[in-house]
Specification:
three-stranded antiparallel sheet; 10 helices; 3 strands; 87% helix
């Protein structure tokens, strides 16, 4: 926002033309549209934030799931306690039944023993009575036989009953024992089932405990997440509140800036006709100046072309002379070296042969004269080179004496021309080793002939002069326009480079 405001302020300060003002107005309209979009987006964000807060509050209020889980947990605990009580009660009943069955078995055994003992006592008592009756019969002789018989009958009936009871009693006890055993087996089966149920219930209890612990951890995690979410949302609310305040402040600033810009636009629209007139006058002036500058440039171009052609033509002559002089200097330097070597040898030979014959002295004088003539030819070539350099200096001085107005006009083109010529001129090739060797051999042959034929001094001197001068007889142009060949009288061929001439 600050960058945009700075751009807007810089744009308003740099309103220099009507087109720029139109662009600024268009930019301000775009900026207002963007501001409205930002305000709408912030309002939408605040609404979405309020909705999120409401959903979070509703989720915080919806704690029925936790209450139901707690209630189910309490019911499960109660059921587990009831099952434990029932198991304990059944275990107690089973123990009581086992005790009762043991007691009954002991009582039945004791009852049977008592009945057997009673029967034995009765039988003993009957035997005694019979013995007494027999004795009494013998004594009394059958007194009160009927009473005794009735008593005996009664006793016999009692004995029979007791015997019947004794016969029936084991079967009854057996049936009771079988019933008790069946009851014990059934109780054992019930006990195993109950133990299985207890084990199953213990497993279920452990699983329920694990589930309860897991639910507790989930509840704690959910509570922690809810707290973190609440903290984040509170921070987000604070951030959005600060952002809303900042956006409201920016909106106020933008409204103030918009009002100031509207005032500036109104002022600019009022000053628009005067500005359009000034722009029109400036455009007319610039068009006139452009036409004048074009004409002036065309004149300068023509003058520059004429001056270039003149300077180029003037420069061709000294360049050719310079090339010729360079070639002649190279030739003279080579001949000078050869002659210096020959002169040293001949002087040594002459010093050795000076004591033998005057004819050889005359021959040495002729050779020295020839050498002096060759050295003079080299000096003349050097003097010609110096004279040409003086001529070039005079021409340069004459060119410098031209009026300064024309020089100022054509200074740039002269500089360009010089650079072009310097780049186009190639270095002159030095004389090859083969040509110098050939020349040295020929010079030695001439000296030997002079030594052998003393009579022909004039002819040898003429040949030596022709060798010393080494003037070019016939220049031969090769198909390549940038090279020239020169044939000397001695048959040596000299090749040197010449820059190709332009169409002018």
């Amino acid at each position: 926002m600050a960058k945009r405001m700075s751009d807007v302020q810089s744009g308003t300060s740099s309103l220099s033309s009507f087109s720029n003002k139109d662009q600024e107005i268009h930019y301000l309209q775009k900026f207002l549209k963007e501001k409205d979009k930002v305000i709408r987006q912030m309002s939408d964000d605040s609404k979405s934030l309020q909705r999120a807060l409401e959903t979070i509050k509703s989720k915080m209020k919806e704690s029925g799931n936790i209450v139901e889980l707690r209630r189910e947990l309490k019911e499960e605990r109660r059921l587990n306690e009831e099952l434990r009580d029932t198991v304990q009660r059944l275990q107690k009943e089973l123990q009581d039944l086992q005790d009762v069955s043991v007691r009954r078995s002991h009582q039945e055994d004791s009852d049977i023993e008592d009945m057997v003992q009673q029967a034995l006592h009765i039988s003993v008592r009957l035997d005694k009575q019979l013995m007494e009756v027999i004795k009494n019969d013998e004594v009394v002789n059958g007194i009160a036989t009927e009473d005794q018989r009735t008593n005996i009958r009664k006793d016999n009936e009692l004995v029979r009953r007791l015997e019947d009871d004794l016969e029936i009693e084991p079967d009854i006890t057996r049936h009771q024992i079988a019933e008790y055993e069946d009851r014990i087996l059934q109780l054992k089966a019930d006990l195993t089932e109950e133990t299985k149920k207890v084990v199953k219930l213990d497993k279920e209890l452990i699983s329920e405990r694990n589930a309860v612990e897991f639910l507790k951890t989930q509840i704690e995690e959910h509570r922690r997440m809810a707290e973190l979410k609440q903290i984040r949302e509170s921070k987000l609310i604070e951030f959005l509140q600060t952002k809303l305040k900042a956006s409201l402040e920016n909106e106020e600033k933008l409204r103030n800036d918009l009002a100031s810009m509207n005032m500036e636009v109104e002022n600019a629209s009022r000053n628009l006709p005067n500005f359009a007139a000034t722009v029109q006058n400036e455009s007319d002036r610039t068009s006139e100046n452009l036409e004048e500058s074009r004409e002036h440039n065309a004149e300068l171009r023509e003058d520059m072309e004429n001056e270039m052609s003149i300077k180029y033509e003037k420069l061709e002559i000294p360049m050719e002379e310079r090339e010729r002089l360079i070639n002649s200097l190279a030739l003279t330097n080579g001949l000078k070296k050869i002659l210096e070597v020959d002169l040293g040898r001949t002087t040594e030979e002459l010093t050795l042969a000076s004591n033998h014959s005057p004819a050889r002295e005359r021959k040495g004088d002729n050779v020295s004269q020839n050498n002096n003539q060759m050295v003079g030819a080299g000096q003349s070539a050097v003097s010609r080179a110096t004279s040409t350099s003086k001529i070039d200096k005079k021409r340069h001085a004459a060119n410098e004496q031209q009026p300064e107005s024309s020089r100022e006009k054509k200074k740039y083109e002269n500089h360009k021309k010089r650079l072009y010529k310097i780049q186009s001129i190639q270095k002159v090739r030095p004389p090859s080793k083969i040509s110098t060797r050939v020349k040295a051999k020929k010079a030695l042959e001439l000296i030997k002939k002079q030594m052998q034929e003393p009579s022909s001094d004039s002819e040898l001197s003429e040949d030596e002069r022709s060798i010393e001068q080494r003037q070019p007889i016939q220049p031969i142009k090769s198909p390549n326009s940038s090279k020239k060949q020169i044939l000397t009288k001695s048959g040596a061929c000299i090749i040197y480079n010449v820059p190709a001439k332009s169409g002018r």
